[in-house]
Write a structure and sequence with these properties.
This protein is mainly beta. The chain contains 1 helix and 17 strands.
């Protein structure tokens, strides 16, 4: 009988669910991945004998165990970027700003960043007593409404400080380090062996993202983000040989 080999060439998708008290797992699929790496590590300590003069190791014991995961994604969903940077992905509602003081030392060519993005209803005026002068876009200033910037083109006949009225647009934002530090996730990898078409699953009960992620903001081609995390032990599953404390790899056939 010919020798049988078992090779794996895996593809698949990653999904996470925020761990909540009810235990219900509402999954969210992460973006396309180029790499999913699982690593285990054990710290040990040992004893050497002192009877023979050889100082030979006679015992070794495990002190700690750890499980780490690294995900590399070449699809940048905003929710995944938020996860990588410990950020809360949230809506920022439109608001109206009046009489924002642009300062008294402006010079022609200065670029001012107004608070907000996707601005509308932008009006600039000077501080002339009685009847302020209304600035004209294209004559006195250049507006880049999307990024919320104005460039001063002319100050002739104007009294500083200049004042700005505008309305900010509705946007979404990932605010760094706003995720609760207690957030943990159930992780599920749905894998398929491209050689045999057999399926396998990887489960981690308590995946905790670590503050060690990165993303390039300048790309020659499609960019990537890296999300790292460690699996914490679930002591309620520790004694169950079918579940284990950290997670398991399940072969579905």
């Amino acid at each position: 009988m010919a020798e049988q080999y078992k090779f794996l060439s895996l593809q698949g998708r990653s999904q996470i669910a925020l761990n909540v008290a009810s235990g219900v797992r509402v999954l969210r699929e992460l973006g396309n991945q180029t790499s999913v790496k699982l690593a285990i590590k054990a710290d040990t300590y040992s004893k050497n004998e002192t009877k023979t003069g050889q100082r030979q190791k006679v015992g070794e014991w495990t002190k700690t165990r750890s499980v780490d995961m690294t995900l590399t994604l070449d699809e940048q969903k905003p929710e995944d970027i938020a996860l990588a940077f410990q950020a809360d992905y949230q809506d920022i509602a439109s608001s109206s700003i009046q009489d924002a003081d642009l300062g008294s030392d402006l010079k022609v060519g200065d670029v001012i960043k107004l608070d907000g993005f996707n601005l509308t209803n932008v009006m600039l005026s000077d501080s002339t007593s009685g009847t302020p002068v209304q600035l004209v876009e294209g004559t006195h200033y250049k507006l880049e409404a999307d990024f919320g910037k104005i460039t001063i083109l002319s100050l002739d006949g104007l009294t500083q400080p200049l004042l700005a009225d505008f309305t900010t647009g509705d946007v979404k934002a990932s605010t760094l380090f706003t995720l609760p530090d207690t957030n943990e996730y159930y992780y599920l990898f749905e894998g398929i062996d491209t050689i045999s078409d057999e399926k396998l699953a990887l489960e981690l009960w308590r995946l905790k993202p670590t503050v060690d992620s990165e993303m390039d903001f300048i790309n020659e081609e499609t960019g990537e983000i890296t999300i790292k995390g460690s699996a914490l032990a679930d002591t309620t599953k520790q004694e169950d040989s079918q579940l284990g404390g950290f997670g398991r790899i399940v072969y579905l056939g």
